[in-house]
Amino acid sequence: MRADYLGGMDATQTTVPTDARPSIVSRNFRAATGAVTERHWVRQDPYASAFFNALSAVFPHGETFMIRSLVPWVGRVPDALRPDVQAFIEQEADHSREHVAMNRALTDMGYDIEPLDRKIRAFVSFFAGASDTVKLTATMCIEHFTAIIAAELLKNRHHLEGVDDDMLELWLWHAVEEVEHKGVAYDVWDHATNGWNPLRRYAWRSFFMLAVTTSFFINRTLGQIELLRQDGHAFLWSLKQIMRAGFGRGGIGRNVLAPWAAFFRPNYHPWDKDDRLLLAQGEADLATIAARRAGYATTPSIVATALQAAA
Length: 311
What we know:
It contains twelve helices and no strands. Helices cover about 65% and strands about 0% of the residues.
């Protein structure tokens, strides 16, 4: 493993080496106009749709917060890391733009996403006067969430089963880029805190992860409940269905518990989990969607076959 900007890590870790990780590329993807065709676009399931709609509602402000948290570090990180930071910023800007468009479509369909927007703005405002290191640490923790959820979507496609190509393309693209840049905020934080003693670093990031987890879980759940309320569903019934869908067998919440807990290993790094094959599958599926749209016959990719065989 190269040690050019990962100086605070234990060299005995089986982390994917820096020079073996996938390149971080801003694809500047543009979702198809009219991609959102109905409120319950995930299999006409209001609960599954509410999960993704609630995420989309907070992405623009959330992505902007993370961009602003990384910008002050562009000139402070080693040369080897700087291109990754710049690519991270470009990718997140693209994500924000596309989810602004999706949120506009949801609003046109009758949803009021202002209550969700208000919560994410309150979260961002909480850090308004914080130091660059505090904002960076919060971003690192948020990025852990987005990366493990993105990896789950790429690995277990039943979450987006039955979704039309336009929306599937949007969410697969976003997931691929989240996994692709999953180590950037951590690497910047690793550099920023390299002079701290190991106990302080561990306590700092663990505390922030617990705080961010609490905020993320409560506010994303309330966001789903709010959208379901607008669909006419009662609070307690919605909460019950959200918990069942999220933490029942095969649920996203249940499946990401182990990856979430991995963050608390003393020498953790996001690339301890080698997701390169998963990224290749995501890229192949995006290419399949493009080919299908162009009228070409498509077959399962070699990567998909390999993943199924390994499952």
